[in-house]
Amino acid sequence: MRSDKTKKGIERAPNRSLLRATGLTDAEMERPFIAVVNSWTELIPGHIHLDKVSEAVKAGIRSAGGVPFEFHTIGICDGIAMGHEGMKYSLPSREAIEDSIELVLQGHQLDAMVMITACDKITPGHLMAAGRLDIPTIVVTGGPMMPGFVDDEYRDLISVFEGVGACRSEKMADD
């Protein structure tokens, strides 16, 4: 296992002591270390539920005999960043996500990873990291965002953009 580089041999006693400080047992030290790469954040609507998905993923890893280690990636919501200077940061965030995943996986020599992701810049960043690292990987998508209702009428992001466009057209006609 890749993780043996951090946990096997007398020379790795300091590494093991730090791993034990996270609560690992002797039995867990013998198991595969699995990264749970989660893009959960409270800022992105399509990610708001990914913390719950992560709990199920970690339970599955444990029941399959692995040891999960969760960490989070950054994320920028295109919809929130749209229309102002924030747009300049969305696309470059892909590479920052890719790099940060590589840094954690290589720095800790984890054996495999489960990626929990959503959104159109964040998911490619995760996938680019998976390709670069070339270790066993499972990708779990958060799925599409559910629409909402306003005054018992169906509303989604497209209908909001259409509404803004209609308001602009009306304003231009009035001018």
Task: Give a written overview of the molecule.
By secondary structure, the protein is an alpha/beta fold. The strands form 2 sheets. It has a 4-stranded parallel beta sheet with strand order 2-1-3-4, with helices on both faces. It has a two-stranded antiparallel ribbon with strand order 5-6. Strand 1, helix 4 and strand 2 form a beta-alpha-beta unit. Helix 6 packs parallel to helix 7. The longest helix is centred in the middle third of the chain and has 22 residues.
Write the layout of secondary structure elements.
Layout: H1 4-7, H2 13-20, H3 26-29, E1 33-38, H4 50-63, E2 67-72, H5 78-81, H6 87-108, E3 112-117, H7 122-133, E4 137-141, E5 148-150, E6 153-155, H8 157-174
Parallel strand pairs: 1-2, 1-3, 3-4
Antiparallel strand pairs: 5-6
Helix pairs in contact: 6-7
The coarse overall form would be: elongated
**Helix-strand pattern, N to C?**
HHHEHEHHEHEEEH
* Structural class estimated from helices and strands: alpha/beta
The largest beta-sheet arranges its strands as 2-1-3-4
Rg, nearest Å: 21 Å
- Biggest sheet descriptor: 4 strands, parallel
Percent helix, as a range, is: 40-55%
Query: Counting H and I runs of at least 4 residues, what is the number of helices?
Result: 8
Overall mean pLDDT score? 90
Q: For the record, give the distance between the C-alpha atoms at the N and C termini, rounded to a whole number.
A: 69 Å
Keywords:
alpha/beta, 6 strands, 175 residues, four-stranded parallel β-sheet, 49% helix, single chain
What would you say about this model in short?
Strands 2-1-3-4 form a 4-stranded parallel beta sheet, with helices on both faces. The protein has 175 residues and is an alpha/beta fold.
